[in-house]
């Protein structure tokens, strides 16, 4: 800026200054035309001169993107047709540099300079013929100047310069100026960058990556691009890589990250069937869902859902936020009911509030954790054999009952377990008060409170067997008492005129034990004061150790000639092992035994009878008999049963008929076996086989008939020696099938491996007691 003071100085010395610096004043006042024009860094600045020496002030300065001119007249208004010059100059950053194959052609003067170094010099007046000069120049990275000069002396003015990049191995520079923006409405992110300074750029490689990994890539020839980002709350950025025409990939440059709103639900948490358990340590069921394999980043909030049907509906029962309790590994359902099947599923919720789908439901049945109700209406009925307890079951899940008993002040002990609402105690000591406690127990083993009741098993009566004169004519009394009853207080004998008054007159009797079985003890004594009595009936009373006596009296007539009534209820049931006989207990008090005879039906004079057979004596306390005397081979059988008292009076026989089952093998056994003496005998549930030793036999084989497969199955092989005698062979079948008839074959095996014809034996095995 020229100030007033400076202007005053000029006026004072104006004459001298004008003479001394005339040219300098003109330069300051009139800047050159080329300085006023600015062209882009990829565009040539073009200047026109009115001479061919590029001197003086340019006629015109402008910008030219391509050097390709053909002037037939003046190139610029105000210039002559001939004797002018034009200069093109470009200074720019060439990035990583490269090599360029050029061609400079035209008329008259042509020159090419690179960084001031002349590459082409055709500076003559060619007229209209012209020149064409090819060549190559290479430059390094950074800023360089390319200049083309053209002079026209006469005729046409033509000039053309092309300089495409030639193949190189230099990688382009990384893009710069990368910016990123995000449009939340569309979900698109846009990246822009500065065009690469390389002249041989072909395209750009774009990679959209998160802070951890790339997810998409593509190519573009522009300097901006857009991409729709997933709305998952993550950060994304664009990374750009320049690629030249020779497929050299430059370094990658990345722009800033942009965040997206999280609208993507997380994946369902990994909850397996084995991760869901039930605990009862707190007294009630609690369902525990283990999340130990789940990372906080999967949530961080996890929800437990419950339903009573797999299809739902589901109700939220628990929530776990790992941001608040990072060390917790379980979701708990604290409110399930017992004995209920539930379906559990879990879901994850991320920090943005997006919730995943629920996991596949896991079915859980909660256990029984509460005790059943106590029994009601507990009652006790005592008789000489037992104390019978009955009660009403609680209306819940009790499945069995425990019965405890205690005599006096003793500690209660478990007597037994009942599957129904009744229990008979046969272990109580007759005449002794026993206190019973009954508990209800459910399937889970929980026990109710106990309900108590006291009862006393009656002392069993002494049962007279017979009363008759002995060899000396004295009245001899025999009677029995149950072996497990307490009769340590002895016995009392009475007589009377009638059965109803039998307990009138005490009688002298010193009982002595005569015999005993597992069920009864038989005593006998001589009534020394009864010889002249007119009483006809005698009874015996058993006395327990505590003085309690039996109350159920049994009487016997001294001159007993009356047989017991005929047996009733006789049945014969064919079984795979033989025949099961059953009958009603006799109503006569003095029944001593039952006589059982088995036979074959036979018709005599048109009357069906039961002939032959064998007889067995069954104790008077027993009302059944298992007949295994004949194999069940489908034959007609008959049985005759009589009741007999102690005086030897027997009832009329009662006969029953039945057809045996046929259990014989369906496979016939060939005759002619050399194995002799084979017999099968039942021995405490097993079957003992014995046969004669056969000369020439090296071993033996034993087979047993399998009714299920209808085949003889080999069950033993070898020498099968008898440990007591070489004369016989022996095998004990410890796996013989109880409750059926067992059929066996035994064969001999010779040295050449051949097997003899089989010998056959069979035995009936009653069912296990």
UniProtKB/TrEMBL annotation:
Keyword Heme: no
Residue span(s) of domain PA14: 39-177
Single GO term (MF): hydrolase activity, acting on glycosyl bonds
Pfam family for this entry, one: PA14
UniProt keyword terms in alphabetical order: Carbohydrate metabolism, Glycosidase, Hydrolase, Polysaccharide degradation, Signal
InterPro entries listed in its UniProt record: FN3_dom, FN3_sf, Ig-like_fold, PA14/GLEYA, PA14_dom
Protein name: PA14 domain-containing protein
